[in-house]
# Entry
Amino acid sequence: MILECIKVGQLEANCYVLAESAGSGAVIIDPGSEFKKIRKVLSKHNLSPAFVINTHGHVDHIGSDAEFKVPVYIHKLDAPMLKDPELNFSSFFGAPFSVGQDAEILAVNDGDYLELGKIKLRVIHTPGHSPGGISLYLEDGAKKILFTGDSLFSGSIGRTDLAGLRDADLVKSIKEKLLVFPSETIVYPGHGPGSTIGDEARNNPFLL
# Structure
């Protein structure tokens, strides 16, 4: 399996490129910006983009969605953000952005699966940072992986004031939907370094 993390944009969002092997199709998770930087990683492994997944609809995670000319998956509650600069907060940064009109946007729900070859990602609705925030669970043999977007970070959790929600909403999502996974499950967040479910359950001050 190929898994690369690419830091993109001023907020250094983590974009993940996931593929079964060199020369295969690729899943692109949260291509926030710097399309050429992401494309360079695809070229290095001779990968063809198959689809994009947004863990949520904020501008630092969606900026290059339409550049790959492939379907874009996002939770139905966050889908309106892709077209609305007020909702995706790009207007707040003085550079209003919306995903191009020709983009194929497909809604997902909790419990859905997104598959590409042997790659099978389970959609886990983890609202709190945004109404339609999702995490993605991948089991690759003995290795278990969670892409947590801006829900769960190493030693922290996502902001909730932007969505008009509460820390309690996000903590509830994390405890009920993510901490139930085995302690060795690797956490790949939307910003910052990775972690494990065990480390976060034991040490994350927002979850104690």
User: Anything to note?
Assistant: The two ends are 34 Å apart (CA to CA). The chain has a mean pLDDT of 96.
